[in-house]
Amino acid sequence: MSAYREAPIGGIWLAIYTDQTWEIGNSSREITANGTYEIKSDTLILTAAQGTSIIGEIDQTSFIIQSESLIEINNSGILSLEIILNNMKETAPLDTAESL
């Protein structure tokens, strides 16, 4: 899954992968952080790799997964992202990484 939001000083890009890892940055070429994730029901939980942070000093955040967007539950500053690529299988349980 890939999601993006334009921001005044560049965009915010997020990708989550089937191996339960994620990357975030200004674009797919400017990665600023990475880590692992888990999906519980309709919630995506990101945890930064040890010694890193998602934004500022935030090392964990979560999003509600909607059909066309990710809405941040905690306020790290990301707020929301528009899903631009989604390979999630609707028939698979949401709490398995294989569905991404």
Description:
This protein has 100 residues and is mainly beta. 0% of the residues lie in helices and 49% in strands. An eight-stranded antiparallel beta barrel has the order 1-2-3-4-5-6-7-8. The relative contact order is 0.22. Residues 90-100 have low confidence and may be disordered.
Question: What tags apply to this protein structure?
Answer:
100 residues, mainly beta, 8-stranded antiparallel beta barrel, 8 strands, 49% strand, disordered C terminus
Q: Please state roughly what percent of the residues sit in beta strands, choosing from under 5%, 5-15%, 15-25%, 25-35%, 35-45% or over 45%.
A: over 45%
Give me the oligomer status: single chain
Q: Helices and strands: which structural class?
A: mainly beta
- The parts where pLDDT drops under 50 for at least 5 residues are 90-100
Report how far the terminal alpha carbons are from each other. Answer: 7 Å
Number of strands: 8
Overall spatial form:
globular
Number of helical segments?
0
| SSE pattern, N- to C-terminal | EEEEEEEE
Biggest sheet details: 8 strands, antiparallel, barrel
Strand order of the largest sheet: 1-2-3-4-5-6-7-8
What number is the mean pLDDT? Answer: 82
Percent of residues in helices: under 10%
Radius of gyration: 12 Å
